[in-house]
Amino acid sequence: MVYRTFGWVQNPSDFRKLKKTVQVFDPSSDHYKKMKDHLIKEEIYFPEDKEKFQNALDNCVSEFSYRDLVGDSFDKNHKRAKKRSDSVANSLLQISILPQSAKTKSKRYTDNWTADGFLRWAVSLNFVSYNRVKDTFKITTLGKKFSESKDDSEEENNILKKVMLRYPPATRILSLLDNSKSGMTKFAIGNQLGFIGEKGFTSYDEDLMIDWLKSADSKELAKIRVDVEGTSDKYARMICGWLSKLNLVKKKTTTYLNSKNESITGFQEYSITAEGAHAIRQANGSSKNKMLPKFVMWEFLATEKSEGDSRSREYIRTRRAYTLKALKNNHTLDTVLSFLKLHNIREEKQTLISDLQKLISFGIRISINKESVILRDDIVDFTIPNETFSLVESNIAFEKIKNQFRKHSKIPEKYLVLFDIAFDPKRNRDFEIITAGLFKDIYGLKAVHLGGGNKPDGAIYNKKFGIILDTKAYGGGYGKNIGQIDEMVRYIEDNSKRDIERNPNKWWEVFDADIPSDQYYYLWVSGKFKKTFKEQLYQTHLRTNVNGGGLEVYQLLLGADAVQKKNLDVNEIPKYMKNEVIEFVPTEENDPECV
Length: 595
Known about the structure:
By secondary structure, the protein is an alpha+beta fold. It folds into four domains: about 15-150, Foki Restriction Endonuclease, Chain A, domain 1 (FokI Restriction Endonuclease, Chain A, domain 1, Alpha-Beta Complex); about 165-285, Foki Restriction Endonuclease, Chain A, domain 1 (FokI Restriction Endonuclease, Chain A, domain 1, Alpha-Beta Complex); about 305-390, Orthogonal Bundle (Arc Repressor Mutant, subunit A); about 410-580, Restriction Endonuclease, CATH 3.40.91.30. Helix content is about 45%, strand content about 10%. Strand 10 (about 445-450) and strand 11 (about 460) form a beta hairpin. Helix 14 packs across helix 15. The radius of gyration is 26 Å and the shape is globular. Keywords: Endonuclease, Hydrolase, Nuclease.
């Protein structure tokens, strides 16, 4: 059985195209008629697809498979397209959603990735229902009303507002904005949105991003403003965009003074409108208004599937789904845990508390007071697959480590994601920015994310010392790499010589001017270091006469915990720079439970 993800949408934002998506399932709609009369004939490329879709629409079929709706990325030779522009139309949604370039170019269809996004959006708002057994989709009663409503009418507007107020992530954002005394950037919202602490829900530190923007050159500015964001930050931006179109949220462009005291365009800030404040309070229920039930599906409750792991994501979804069902009649942590055991889910209390907190940031209102837990929302009933799922061994090990931190430390959940992304080469930027955020937020050091050409990943410092930071996300651990020794040596020499002819970007200017010249260090951070990495440290020191070290994520977080408990003075960190793998807190070898 194929298990898909719904509930989280990153790119679609056009309500007109959303309606076209829904009308694909409505034989009485004008768009369905256009597909039947000419779009299939004109745009579908392969004859077999053309014939199949024409027969279906001629017979008023209104339930379609995922493949029929989203299609594939094939070129004219029926081979995988090497680039999007080579792909041909082979699905109903591809020919329904016109690309932005449709008016200037002859291409009258979109790609399968965009088609998937709009289908996911329609399902997430309950306009289209999903049959996970057959992997098919059809219109809902609410979707039929939306399909039949006139464009830009009051009826259409009311339908869209209602579905947003039943969609948990949208209500979470409205509640955050309603409780905020000032506008919030996507980073401030993303930091409190979704299943925090998981790979699919990263959020970048707001102050870190603003400082990066202020220190960036003109070429980097636009990219940082638009392209650099965590996944939760992107969800926040997209949902705020929907809400602003419905006049529930308003947005404002900010300005900052950069390092040259020049005014630059900053990140957008979002705030709730009077209509939005009224709407969320009504949706949450009052003496005069019955609360709107939240629409939830099992497929909403996790997003990322680890490579080679087809079961852990589904297990997490099932655990959270049964937790929500348990909360209807169980009001203590122990009784919820007992309910989970009845469904063969045996978890520690720390995992349950973490799930409850993540369900809150997902958009479900839950009150937790010591051992008491109360569900404050009505939730539309949903189904759970009748199948047994389990975590893979690596995820079980990480969960045990995380639970030790949850039990014995006050490290925010958002930083526990480092255990996952530190071993994922595709998440290098996440690793860079979240690591810098941890040094700033928990260690209390100043941190600047640099990145880009001829710059280290970051700079960590106070008035007494500075650290040149380089992060490495590797699946099997990080060992010796000659090229990266050369890079670090160059950064160390850049900082020492500070010659703008040698490196005109002057990245070293982020350091405090009072740092003594002999108090600069280098640091590599990774999930785990191989034995060969010791040679990298030795060679770097030998070539520069500067001290540094390597820091594994486990020790990075143990050090953060020690700083919080005042067992580690950050001013003592230079003493650990001995060109070795650093151990802030001694632990027994291979003992992840020594926290």
